[in-house]
């Protein structure tokens, strides 16, 4: 495990050397970092990490993105997620897997009351529609590992929420 300063990520290129697979779940919130900070973390840091990973020999990059990611979106969150997907694909990995989970169900240490209410509601909805609107973070993690262990379905594979559920159960 290497601790890096993302503001000076280029100085930590050695941490990205010699890995066949790269996993990226980096992200923040606009509320926590502001609009500029959100873009810097969710797009710029991720794109730079992908470039360093590729330069270090990474062949397969696995990116956690978001349901609805679209570089043309009017919504900052979805636009940034779409932009970073495009940037990561352009790096030229032999294989790139993009996961687009819906609302992540998880327990957080920090207090986010509206997110907690949403998670409680979606937890109930998931009883009737288990793959429609949410996914437990453990399922996403299992899907990320499983996609590396299975043969690829092309140079770039995008897994939407339903596929994440299915792969996360494998």
Automatic annotation (TrEMBL):
InterPro entries registered for this protein in UniProt: NAD(P)-bd_dom, NAD(P)-bd_dom_sf
Domain NAD(P)-binding: 4-151
GO MF term set: catalytic activity
Cellular-component GO terms for this entry: cytoplasm
A Gene Ontology BP annotation from the UniProt entry: import into nucleus
Stored Pfam families: NAD_binding_10
Oligomeric and partner information: Monomer. Forms homodimers during oxidative stress. Interacts (via N-terminus) with elongation factor EEF1A1 (via middle-region); the interaction is direct and competes with EEF1A1 binding to guanyl-nucleotide exchange factor EEF1B2, thereby inhibiting GDP for GTP exchange and reactivation of EEF1A1. Interacts with nuclear transport receptors XPO4, IPO5/RANBP5, IPO7, IPO9 and KPNB1 as well as GCN1L1/GCN1 and LRPPRC probably through their HEAT repeats. Binds NCOA5/CIA.
Name the record gives this protein: Protein HTATIP2
Gene transcribed to yield this protein: Htatip2
């Amino acid at each position: 495990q290497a601790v890096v300063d993302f503001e000076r990520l280029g100085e930590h290129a050695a941490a990205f050397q010699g890995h066949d697979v790269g996993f990226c779940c980096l992200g923040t919130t606009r509320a926590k970092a502001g609009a500029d900070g959100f873009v810097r973390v969710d797009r710029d840091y991720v794109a730079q990490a992908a470039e360093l990973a590729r330069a270090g020999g990474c062949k397969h990059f696995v990116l956690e993105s978001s349901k609805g990611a679209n570089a043309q979106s009017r919504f900052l969150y979805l636009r940034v997620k779409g932009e970073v997907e495009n940037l990561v694909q352009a790096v030229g990995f032999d294989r790139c897997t993009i996961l687009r989970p819906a609302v992540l169900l998880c327990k957080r240490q920090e207090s986010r009351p509206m997110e907690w209410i949403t998670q409680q509601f979606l937890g109930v909805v998931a009883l009737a529609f288990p793959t429609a609107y949410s996914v437990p973070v453990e399922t996403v993690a299992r899907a990320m590992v499983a996609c590396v262990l299975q043969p690829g379905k092309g140079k770039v594979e995008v897994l939407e929420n339903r596929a994440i559920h299915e792969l996360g159960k494998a």
